[in-house]
Amino acid sequence: MGLLSKGFSGLRVLKEGLTGNTGWTPHWRDPEPKAEYDILIIGGGGHGLATAHYLASVHGLTNVAVLEKGYIGGGNIGRNTTIVRANYFLPGNSEFYSHSLKLWEGLEQDLNYNVMHSQRGIFNLFHSDGQRDAFARRGNAMINQGDDAILLDRDGVRKHLPYLDYDNVRFPVYGALYHPRGGTARHDAVAWGYARGADSRGVDILQNCEVTGIDIEGGVVKGVQTTRGAIRAKKVGIVVAGRSGQVAAMAGMRLPIESHVLQAFVTEGLKPVIDNVVTFGMGHFYISQSDKGGLVFGGDLDSYATYAARGNLPTVEHVMEAGMTLMPMIGKAKILRSWGGIMDMTPDGSPIIDKTGIDGLYIDCGWCYGGFKAVPASGHCFAHLIATDRPHEAATGLRMDRFRTGYGIMDEEGTGSQHNLH
Amino acid sequence: MRIKCPICGERDHREFYYRGAALTRPDPDAGEGAWDDYVYLRDNPAGETRDLWYHAAGCSAWVVVTRNTLTHAVSSTELAEKT
Ligand SMILES: Cc1cc2nc3c(=O)[nH]c(=O)nc-3n(C[C@H](O)[C@H](O)[C@H](O)COP(=O)(O)OP(=O)(O)OC[C@H]3O[C@@H](n4cnc5c(N)ncnc54)[C@H](O)[C@@H]3O)c2cc1C
Ligand SMILES: [Zn+2]
User: Fold this and answer.
1) Other CB atoms within 10 Å distance of the CB of residue A339
2) For B67, nearest residue in chain A (alpha carbons)
3) B76 C-alpha vs ligand 2 centroid, how far in Å?
4) pLDDT at A311
5) Of A70, A124, A229, A232, which has the most beta carbons under 10 Å away?
6) What is the pLDDT at residue A7?
7) Alpha-carbon dihedral angle through residues A126, A127, A133, A138, given to the nearest 10 degrees
């Protein structure tokens, strides 16, 4: 791509600015579906688009289509609170998220796209001696994995976050686990960047194309039925996040997944006030400030199975109370919007990238509320699995059969491997 | 969302603890497949579902709630012990 023609660069922004911004073109085509492809990816969220991008860029597989029932960026990829981190503890997750953070660090160059990845640091606050011990142990696991973690005491936190209420009677701030390489990114730009990366290598991105059936003959996948006609394929990957249960059912599968809603909130734009990502696990609250100035925050799931992409008021109230408890200074900010997204929750809170019992059919699901940071590695590892029929070395632990066998369960929170406990 | 407890009447859903899909427990010796189905695998329907809620801040009853996962409308409730 020439610097001044199709690629993005500072020089091009300058040139377009001086010539009336008339040279920008759509970032991807809007093709008609072909009758057959080598590979179909069901779901044009972050994970599906990243999978298509890496199938093309790493494996040279370009006779690929991404089938999206709505529009690119309309699912969770455009609804999340954009936190990117590699602070996992258990083998299986640890190497996977570490791999993902490394891909994030090279993503803008790889995609030639500004995804506004900002490694502004994450502070996970702790409020008791027991929690400090648990965080010290987690920090050591992160360092052993090759990532970064610093255990801060109360004064250490105060230097970075002077605005917290340190003396809350119920949850006084004892310190924090600081993860400097953690941060945020612009979520839609991630979807658009991957879509453009895949499209530019020949992948067809088919929007308004809902998959309504999966064709299987003699245990082998043959293609799919869609609202834009039947499409044949040798291999099919299911990557539909909150809708995993429905699409898997088209292949006669039941998954270890329940769909739940997670809400988030954004305030009016404010001057820079929160420089990092801060999490208050005891109160179920976390926050960062977007580059536009809005405070972006959220809490826990509403905690009942649902497909309504909106939550109920008790969770709204709870999140606001927790935020006011931790940082009373935000109390005067006006909330502009709140919304919800449907999370594919697994019993142990960890994801699945695996084959199914059906030849040529693969599945990538179970991202729970943490799948944004996973987008690069999920796409990278799912593409590897589809292309080579072997799991990528960073994703060998993300097996579906761990629930049935009890071997390799990844329950990061230690709350038990059961639905509705994560 | 408001849930009608058969004993206490209509209450805010925050009075209840959500347990998940209301399923029939297999026999102890039903085998690995049946237990995997019961503990882990889910229909996860988009539409009508039946799930178990515990009236923790009320009468302590387990309630089977029939509701719609797309609209949050609750169509009926009954005591779990009656099902
Ligand atoms: C409020 C909120 C906050 C979050 N915060 C964070 C965070 O801070 N950090 C983090 O790491 N993660 C976070 N997440 C989680 C993260 O957003 C998700 O795990 C991740 O985006 C899911 O993968 P995806 O991007 O592929 O999903 P989606 O964008 O939902 O993609 C799935 C796509 O599949 C399509 N689809 C479904 N059915 C069909 C069909 N039959 N045919 C064709 N297409 C179909 C859908 O239309 C959708 O576009 C958050 C989520 C929410 C809702
Ligand atoms: Zn009651």
Assistant:
1) 16
2) A306
3) 14
4) 87
5) A124
6) 85
7) -20
> In chain B, how many domains are there?
1
Please say whether the dihedral angle defined by the alpha carbons of residues A315, A320, A321 and A326, taken in this order, is positive or negative.
Answer: positive
Averaged pLDDT score across all residues of chain A: 96
Residue B54 lies in a domain: no
Q: Which residues of A touch B39 (CB under 8 A)?
A: 347, 403, 418
Domain parsing of chain A, residue ranges: 31-113+187-255+348-405, 122-182+258-345
Q: Give A307's contacts in chain B (Cβ within 8 Å).
A: 46, 69-70
CA of B6 to the centre of ligand 2 (A): 7
Using CB distances shorter than 6 Å, the residues near ligand 1 are A 42-48, 67-70, 74-77, 79-83, 210-211, 239-243, 247, 262-264, 298, 341, 367, 369-373
Class of domain A31-113+187-255+348-405: alpha beta
Q: How many CB atoms lie within 10 A of CB A358?
A: 18
Q: CA separation (Å) from A403 to A167, A375, B23?
A: 42, 23, 18
Q: Is A415 on the interface with B (CB under 8 A)?
A: no
B73 assigned to some structural domain:
yes
What's phi and psi for B49, nearest 5 deg?
A: -140, 160
How much distance in Å is there from the Cα of B6 to the middle of ligand 1? 37
Edge to edge, what strands does the sheet with B48-54 contain? B17-21, B48-54, B62-68, B74-79
User: In the predicted model, is pLDDT for residue B10 greater than 70?
Assistant: yes
| pTM, full prediction | 0.97
Each residue of A305-360: pLDDT tens digit? 999 988 899 999 999 999 999 999 999 999 999 999 999 999 999 999 999 999 99
